[in-house]
Design goal:
Elements (H helix, E strand, L loop, with lengths): L20 H8 L2 H12 L6 E5 L5 H9 L4 E6 L2 H14 L4 E4 L12 E7 L7 H14 E12 L5 H13 L3 H4 L3 H7 L3 E11 L2 E9 L2
Parallel strand pairs: 1-2, 1-4, 2-3, 4-5
Antiparallel strand pairs: 5-7, 6-7
Helix pairs in contact: 2-3
This protein binds S-adenosylmethionine (SAM).
Length: about 220
Amino acid sequence: MGETRHQYIPALRFGWLTGLYDPVIRWTMREDLFKPRLVEQVRMQPGHRVLDLGCGTATLTIQLKQYQPHAMVVGLDGDPVVLARAREKAAEAGVNIVFDQGMAYQLPYPDQSFDRIVASLLLHHLTLGDKRRALAETFRVLKSGGELHIADFGKPHTVFMACLSFIVRWLEEAYEHVKGMVPELIREAGFAQVEETGRFTTAFGTLVLIRAVKP
Ligand SMILES: C[S@@+](CC[C@H](N)C(=O)[O-])C[C@H]1O[C@@H](n2cnc3c(N)ncnc32)[C@H](O)[C@@H]1O
């Protein structure tokens, strides 16, 4: 397993902003559009085991469980504060979700444990080295034929989006995203059929949806 590290960038970059995460994402990231699209793309079946990596306050995790109540849904995040809010929201929604604290680049699960892994707005929080480790970990814990579904910043598709993307490049680890390198990083981890399935205009730049399959 190598060394144990516990480094993460909190949901809104600074821990003291975490309480504002839900309204900020709703107003700036077109969450109402892209999360339902991502949930549909995941095509969960009854009995599937689904991991929401970097689940944050669990808006998406809850939508996944509501979409397919007969799937087992797990949310993992490195931040205990955001996980406390996630647990509250799941209880308010009346859904049964397992929440684990852990690092995306050192997943606390055995090989081949999940049918689907979803990572929404997580990868741009990770350094290039940690993106590679996290993708290798998702590959390890997915079953053969399992799928990885990502929503995150991508190559800007307009000049205006390119201008806006300077904010996340400056604040977070979005260089590879803006350069359009994420699909290649996913292929390098061993995934096949890596394809961009959607694109959204947001207040911080172009957001893309990606699907990939573990052969
Ligand atoms: C921008 S939020 C996204 C939350 C949620 N997935 C969504 O779409 O709204 C990123 C989340 O990733 C978590 N995170 C960042 N680095 C992490 C790491 N190395 N391991 C696990 N979680 C991490 C943060 O704590 C935060 O909750």
